[in-house]
Amino acid sequence: MKISIPQLGRLLLSMIYESLLLIAVLFIASFIFHLVFPDTTSLLFKPAHQLYLLLVMGAYFIWFWTHGGQTLAMQTWKLRLTTAAGERVNLKQAIARYLFAVVGISLFGCGILWALFDRDHQFLHDRLAGTRIVNVVG
Q: Could you give the CA distance from residue 56 to residue 85 in angstroms, rounded to a whole number?
């Protein structure tokens, strides 16, 4: 199996595809949440719903990253998440990457923009978590 550093455009296209898949996951999760908690007028409904969706997204990403290193979009684009040393990502690194990504994206996308200046086109959350995205061919 040959491993190389992906081009930035490939990473961004994968992220667009990932967001489409994630919308479907969040739609189903929201439907379930509304079935369980139908009172949308409650003061705690909105923050509870947002926290729930954040946890659903975290479970989605962390599970895929720790079970093969590829989300559905990453499989399509032949990308894989590894440690900086090229090994499988452990649970601690996956959780750290997710939390760093949430913060980096929430701050006007600074964690994503970082890739424009990074020598390997890696995102800030990858640098902080000790992970990297690589091309997988073979």
A: 29
